[in-house]
Amino acid sequence: xxxxxxxxxxxxxxxxxxxxxxxxxxxxxxxxxxxxxxxxxxxxxxxxxxxxxxxxxxxxxxxxxxxxxxxxxxxxxxxxxxxxxxxxxxxxxxxxxxxxxxxxxxxxxxxxxxxxxxxxxxxxxxxxxxxxxxxxxxxxxxxxxxxxxxxxxxxxxxxxxxxxxxxxxxxxxxxxxxxxxxxxxxxxxxxxxxxxxxxxxxxxxxxxxxxxxxxxxxxxxxxxxxxxxxxxxxxxxxxxxxxxxxxxxxxxxxxxxxxxxxxxxxxxxxxxxxxxxxxxxxxxxxxxxxxxxxxxxxxxxxxxxxxxxxxxxxxxxxxxxxxxxxxxxxxxxxxxxxxxxxxxxxxxxxxxxxxxxxxxxxxxxxxxxxxxxxxxxxxxxxxxxxxxxxxxxxxxxxxxxxxxxxxxxxxxxxxxxxxxxxxxxxxxxxxxxxxxxxxxxxxxxxxxxxxxxxxxxx
Length: 458
Prior knowledge:
The protein is of the alpha/beta class. The protein has helices at residues 15-21, 84-92, 109-120, 126-136, 153-169, 197-212, 231-239, 259-275, 290-293, 338-344, 351-362, 379-399, 406-417, and strands at 36-46, 49-57, 69-70, 173-177, 186-194, 218-221, 243-246, 280-281, 300-301, 323-325, 328-330, 366-370, 401-402, 420-424, 427-431, 440-446, 449-453. The chain is globular, with a radius of gyration of 22 Å.
């Protein structure tokens, strides 16, 4: 057992626990063992089996996710063998992988291939593009990290950190601020990236379909090159109760290829955000850079997959909850995109989406879907989408899931980040703006395991 003398600064209050659980500061201290050496991969046992994390650890860490060292199960009274705040930041920000896009102006093979592809892409048929993309992603089944089909490593680290903090505080029960408003057990959002003129023409009808199932969805539009923006069509989308977001600038794949390019385009994106009253953003192809996104003039972003095995930019943020990139709320995409399901996996059934929804619901997290209007114009794609909407509506009723517009969810997450717990006599209450919709839940410690009981549970 690690001695108290070898602990890192145990007086540090964990922002990790304050962020996720809104714990009082005196309950948010996590004793951790001093890390050894450089950051690397390590594995921990958890709710969903083996979870692979990345960061500095009080053990020799392996260099690959496949050979990650398995930490021994923590005994009662032992500190964590890693510093959870740093490890969670490494996972959310994808520091475990070299995710820098090749400079679009560079001469290395990757840059040349990427530049050539986007140059000829407009001239390629849909069938040829799909074949090329399927081949480029053919190795996805060999990827061991993040966990497929949903990675909940960040959630496991939160649980283990809370357990250690509760042990250090000498309590076996503590209040937390529940994740969602009005006692909802989870959240689900529907989003649409509009890539082509045909998809944009279909968007108002799709908005009405979504609203008929109770989903105030978002439509991310490409402001330049792809199609002419029709203000009346945007008004129809808004009239159906849906919102407008931005999908990059011109969908050429170069937004994050270099910082100079990003810095040149960011003011243009801000201009279009103001023009179209858009507060949300998703990068085309889900290309992303966590260090730069916070510089965009947006309220929320949706460019991070939970697991990026089927995306050209691999990686994943390993969480099913919103998080902050500076002042921007990141709403991670936690379900497989329709394009990947239909045209990479060649499936038109709901089985994968159901499996992902079950995992996310078990964590009381956010189920976030992307369905492109462009890919459900045919009867087969549209039929699958209607089945999905019916399933989500049924699950929302059965499991008490919240179905907000993405902006409403982002605003809630910002409000919740400013809430705090207050004790009045023997009772605990949530204080702060929006607290009338918030609830107190309880975390219970049994030796080294934490169980969180949702509000309203007997």
